[in-house]
UniProtKB/TrEMBL annotation:
PANTHER family: MERCURIC REDUCTASE. Its cofactor is FAD. This is NAD(P)/FAD-dependent oxidoreductase. Keywords: FAD, Flavoprotein. Gene3D superfamilies: 3.30.390.30, FAD/NAD(P)-binding domain. Pfam families: Pyr_redox_2 (PF07992), Pyr_redox_dim (PF02852). Residues 340-446 form the Pyridine nucleotide-disulphide oxidoreductase dimerisation domain. Residues 6-319 form the FAD/NAD(P)-binding domain.
Amino acid sequence: MSEQADVVVLGLGPGGEYVAGTLAEAGLDVVGIEAELVGGECPYWGCVPSKMMIRAGNLLAEAGRVPSLAGAAEVTPDWGPVAGRIRGEATDDWNDRVAADRLAAKGGRLVRGTGRLTGPRQVTVGDRTFEARRGVVLATGTRPRIPPVPGLAPTPYWTNRDAIAAKELPASMIVLGGGAIGVELAQVFARFRCAVTVVEGQERLLSQEEPEAGELAEEVLRADGVAVLTSVRARQVGHDGTGFIVHLEGEEKPLRAERLLVATGRRADLAELGVDAAGLDPSARAVRTDGQMRAEEGLWAIGDVTGHGNFTHVSMYQAEIAVRDILGRPGLDADYRALPRVTFTDPEIAAVGLTERQARDQRLRVRTSVVPIASSTRGWIHGRGNEGFIKLVEDADRGVLIGATSAGPAGGEVLYGLNVAVHAEVPVERLRHMIYTYPTFHRTVEAALGALR
């Protein structure tokens, strides 16, 4: 016999947990289904612990930039305190219990297990089936995409979860993939004296961002001792019991390392989720939704599974929209024109909206500018470690910014003003007449506005 609920939320990552808790607080009977830890990838293996690691690596680098501390920074650092801070002080089980108790306190019901759609408004978990009177919310996220490289599957390769959970620092590591996860972890491990090689199939790192961003990422990784190989792919992977052997296309000499980190993107498995039972295409790469996050009648989807970026902030943004719609409250449709993203390397590389190439591909008439952070007074004061730039992309016909990149110290924070400008379509002429605080990194935006050509 089926169990009844108003709403079933399948997946309790940040967005799913928010949907379940908020709807329960609103008085609905909500069932939240989670196979792993309540809170999802972000607090346990993604955003939060990775930034702890990055913070530690950045402190080491900054110490090396200060003459009086440079000698201390050359001493081989201990990986133990970093691993202990991430995996010891606040254990996964404790955090999971807190999150589960928080949902229960709001009136939600937590069901542990792997759920799948088995019909319209119907979800099955093990031998239990739930019928949702109002509907189902899909918030199942994504998992690492493992490329079909011969020999890779049976080896003890790492994904980001393994790298984050590592209690011992490897002597050497090969990273397959030069996206945000790959470059962030490559820099952290390198700063703790691990010999790192990054292998990227595209012609540059961070290939989805501006070319200047990829060039900067390569420059700073090389400065940290990372070997960067672009426009090359792995053709064979092996493991001899002590380490990895990676053969590259077009190269005779293989790479060898103690560990292999696979960071080649993420994917959603819609067939495993059973979306065909709700009338969706199980072979699709993502669940398509309308502006109110509806995938079908009585079915909403939020987060990574929608294909709008593997970012917690996107999941939370979509969660708010879905909650409003389920409660019958009016609200704006989802708008991704000003989607922000940050790669938390040192320097941080942040961007919002369209890249120059994307804008030109849309046949827009654009004006652009690139101004180095080092040219600003704050950049000069900062000295070593001031690598970075501001790049602006303007729709010349409308006179508004449609894209921007803020790379440099606190690049993610500097992005905020640019994010507002792109989102609100603030006229460039009005931005030019704004007062920019002196001396700040964001004052470089003023110079970049003046350099638009």
